[in-house]
Design goal:
The complex is a heterodimer of chains A (568) and B (505). Chain A is α+β, with helices and mostly antiparallel strands. Chain A has eleven helices and 26 strands. In chain A, the strands form five sheets. Chain A has an eight-stranded mixed beta sheet with strand order 7-6-5-4-2-3-1-8. The longest helix of chain B has 27 residues. Classes of the chains: A alpha+beta (568), B alpha+beta (505).
Amino acid sequence: MSPRNVNKFNMDTRLSILSQLAQRVRGEQESSNGSVYGTRTRRKVLAVAVITDAGNPGHDASLLLPVPLVRVGSFMVCKGDHTTPTLEEGEVAIVWDQLELHTYIGGPQDATPIRYTITTEEEFSNTFLLAKVSFSLDISAKDSTSSIRNLVQSLTEQLESSAACFRLLYSKLVLQNNKGILSLGKPLSDSNEPVGSLSKSGTGNKKSSTPPMASFQFMFSRSVCPTTNAPVVRIDKRKTSILSALLNGEVLVYLRKTMAVSDVANLLSRGMVRQLHLAEHWLGKQLADTKLKGSLTPVNSVHFIVGHVVSVIYPDETEESYLEEYRKEVHKALLLPLNRPMIKRGNKQTQNHASTKSSVLTNTHVGLSSSNVNGIVRIVQGTYGYHHYMQDHFDDNKWGCAYRSLQTLVSWFKYQGYTDNPIPTHRDIQKCLADIGDKPSSFIGSKQWIGSTEVGYVLDNMFNVGSRFIYVSSGEELASYGRQLTMHFEIQGTPIMIGGGVLAHTIIGVDWSDETGDINFLILDPHYTGSEDLGVIQSKGWCGWKSLKFWKPGAYYNLCLPQRPHCV
Amino acid sequence: MGRLILGDEILQDKLTALAKAGRFQIGLLIGQNTADTHIIVHLAPTPVPDEGDLSSEDEDPTLPDPTSATRPDPTSATRPDPTSSKYPDSIPKVVDATVTEHARQAVRMLPGGLNLLGVYIVTTPTDFTAPPSQAKIRGVLSSIHRTTTRVLLESCDVCTEKVVIHVCSQTFKITCKTEDLSTTTSEASSKVSEVKFTRGGSGGDSTFKQLSYCYNINLNFWLPKEQQSAQSLYRTLLTLLRPWAKSVKESLILIDSALPDDSDTLDPPRSKTKGGGGPQTPAPTSSAPHKVFTAEILDACTPLVPPSAVGGGAEGAGCVRESMGCVKLTGSLAGLAFVHSKATVGESRGAVIMDLVRSVVGRWEMHCDSLVEEPLTHLQGPIIHEPPRRVFIDGGGLPVSLCDYLFPGDTPTDACQSAKELLGLRIQQQHVDDTLETLADASDVENIGEPGEPCEPLVNPGLGRRGGGGVRAGGGSIGGVTVTHLLALLAILTVMIAIGVSYFK
């Protein structure tokens, strides 16, 4: 093979790395080896995830990644010099030597360096549509690993056969594995249309960090008959021990918007097989450990630090704490930080918040025009809910603002997977304060205000979340805390409750210039009494950037800054 | 007035001929209920039973308890002989159980959509109108209804309005009435009805639409620990089939690879295409006997029983527990249903479901009836039961096809025999299609269990029709080997004959 060909190959193939992956890799200090997972099109490799040998979840860790991600190359973290990795033709390598990212591609003979670009979260989610497949399978088998393996094997064969069909929910469109389209229906008018046309929300928010979703129901075609053998009945009346088990499946699969709809069923089927094999791991565990009780339920999460779907399975009735060791191994394997929950049940992705009408709006700041300080902008990390007056049919006008701000703080911990507990009501909050002796029992059911100290007590007692407090004697003094607040959003990333005079607010971001000392605050105002209308909330400033003048010069202010517990 | 009753002129001729013969006769009306009519397609005279046919049926306590009146009286084992004068000569002498048993067996020969609509009786007006006769008729209709409904396991609603046709043996006049079994008082339930015999039979367009499908059944059930051990074979399987039948009702049925709404017409009349750009589809030949639609049945594969019931016990999923064994039902079923020319898609889907459930339950009933005694299963390894396979019957001058079930060892001639006995039809052997369902061969049967757990075929050499179903049991012996060899030989022979037939076509 002539060198010219090698060059040609390398010039033709482009490597792109998902921004979150590049960021995580750059933060690694321990030496490790592993594989890169991503997608491969004719001329482009997109690296989305890595699996390192540092973690051992007890099963093939790539089962945690969504279809169509496949191994596209290798990965290494080292200190100092490294040798050019050995790669198969077309494979890529990502090497982090604590100084810079080196990337390589395998040619016909050896690997050569290749340049890479960064794919942003938005670009990534604009490329794909997420398909969700729901199903429920009885996976009871005799209590031996070989019986379980046989069962999974035979189910896999069925899922890979052309009997596996997928119906787009609420439509007449049915896709069939290995065949393409079984029944054509809206929103499709001919079988050659691309996947993009499945998503009805053409008006979808381009800035969204998660792709639009199409939901499918798994359907098994009984009319695909492998033989003409008439039915027979096999009765075995020997006593036996069985593991009764149930998989409440939910598979998320990335579909490239440009792919043909007729190719979708195969990917969905592969996604189901992947989940079934993950379930097989848990069945084996359930045999050996009676504490791992319950139906197997997947938790699909898209954490902002990861940027793509991670799909784990847990037995329903098992304590979160009992699963911590497993979670740690998964974190290590996928190169996830060990100081924050990312794959707990609470991290389960709840798609389409907007579609559930009654629910609280989330991340209401998205879409606001930027602040005018042009300093360092730091905003709450992840998702929070906008809690304000009059929600839940509860009239707390003129007294409940701090309660609502506390609810927003709690919502952040809920969305980020720290807690499964519900958002506390005003009464829950009052009861908690009475229980710890901070308030008399007559406080319960009253309309008395609370301040940032009480907010801190409740976070601590109900959610095991500690807080830092800042006290200032005038609104202007807040300017001198610019650096501290910026650091808070960078390191902790939690919303801040601020109380002063008769008002409470939530600070969800700052824009601070370390040169001029100017500062703007991104404020979420709990005094809003209207409906969940994002347009009004943004245009009328219920969620918006405020200057220092927003705070009263003559009032004292107390800030409660919740601190993330270190856990997975 | 009850629903309008429709039938072909030929049926009128037949009834008149019976009246002219002057002998008492009772028989079943085969046809289809629509929203506002009863369409009769065939008259099946109730035969004089021979003892083999009327062996005591499975006395299953789980089934809706047929009143003792419909039970065959064990002392009346001496059945009327066809040649003797013991054939009933009036309504009071009709043995309830004879008609019920006829209904039980005849309904298995009907494809989906078709059912027993009622009875016809050739007798004198005095006999017909006597109050005891009327009570008797109502009793017979109730038994027929119960018998034909229970094999459906509540998967379909069966019309409770039954048809009674009286052919006067003196005036040869044909009169009709309907009995609504859902009303309790016999006065209110009985209505005079109009019967129309026309060429073609169903009022307008006489062609029935055919729906064909196949169904891959694959059920697995772990027997709960606390279950009482003395459960009959029939009942054991029914615990599995009940939830299955319920799930069948929920399945998604595609018709010709599309999902039309239930309210759509299955075969909408072609509107005259106005001149336009689109490619014109060739007009279908209007004289086609019946248009064939293909149905596909999809389900969500969800567990039929909640995990708490799997293997019994109070715990949910994810626990190891004791089970008393395992029942597996697996194989491919060939299905057929017919609907009238103006049927909706909903009616068509209902006909498919009716066919599916009736075929599965019906063949299991036949299998259990055929067993001389229940195998002592707990003493041995797994046992394979081979219920009879389904064959289809064309011809006989009917606007629809029929079906029958052949035990291992039976031949298509046996199906012709059934058609003659139960439906009064002369069918030629070449009109029996036994290719759509085949006898599972030994290796396939063995693979039903888990790999590495062979289930050697043995036991009960098939005694043929009504003699004994196919049962293969575990625990090999020399005898077993012999039977295996015989079966293999039989299979080879069958293949050779099949090759020969296709070669000489």
